[in-house]
Automatic annotation (TrEMBL):
Residues 131-183 form the RNA polymerase sigma factor 70 region 4 type domain. InterPro entries: RNA_pol_sigma-70-like, RNA_pol_sigma-70_dom, RNA_pol_sigma70_r2, RNA_pol_sigma70_r4_t2, RNA_pol_sigma_r2, RNA_pol_sigma_r3/r4-like, WH-like_DNA-bd_sf. Pfam families: Sigma70_r2, Sigma70_r4_2. The keyword Phosphoprotein does not apply. Belongs to the sigma-70 factor family. ECF subfamily. Keywords: DNA-binding, Sigma factor, Transcription, Transcription regulation. Residues 33-95 form the RNA polymerase sigma-70 region domain. GO terms for molecular function: DNA binding; sigma factor activity. This is RNA polymerase, sigma-24 subunit, ECF subfamily. GO terms for biological process: DNA-templated transcription initiation. SUPFAM superfamilies: Sigma2 domain of RNA polymerase sigma factors, Sigma3 and sigma4 domains of RNA polymerase sigma factors. It comes from the Bacteria.
Amino acid sequence: MKGSKIHKWQEKRLLGKIQNGDEESFGKIYDWYVNRIFKYVSLKIGSIEKAEEIVQDVFLKFWRFARDKENKVKNISAFLYKIAKSMVADHYRTTAGEGKIISLEETIIVEDETIGEEELADNIDLNLDIEKIKMALEKLPRSYQDVIIMKFMEELTNKEIAEILEKEEGHIRVLAHRALKQLRSLLKSND
């Protein structure tokens, strides 16, 4: 399943198996989404340890909810992001955002540990640019941060983002446009 989007029919089949207690199906969903949810949470939280804890809780809540035959999950991605967004908000309410600031490179989980020197140099240059973007992102309102992370880093569609944020799809387009405009402005002022 990695490398492309999960199909709705696959989600439906896996969810049906989870309702019957199939842990292997849950594992497939976990494997598919864990890096995405971790990246989102860690960019919002700033602490790897806390992000890992929140991600575990996100999937635990998903497991409990999805196993209940009375509950219906229509879109796994949107549902997981909603849980994560809610838990990030809870984190900020309870801790006022304390924690060490992490670099974006710490949030990237490298699947292939065999990176050559040339690739490493390219990654360092990319990470420097990403660090500038991350610093500018932190200055944006949370709604803009969410849209930029989901749309451009997680490559979610406007429709998926609208479902996660519980807004109209047209509103997401406007939000994305305004967020990018403000991000560009911040990046220009930092240069």
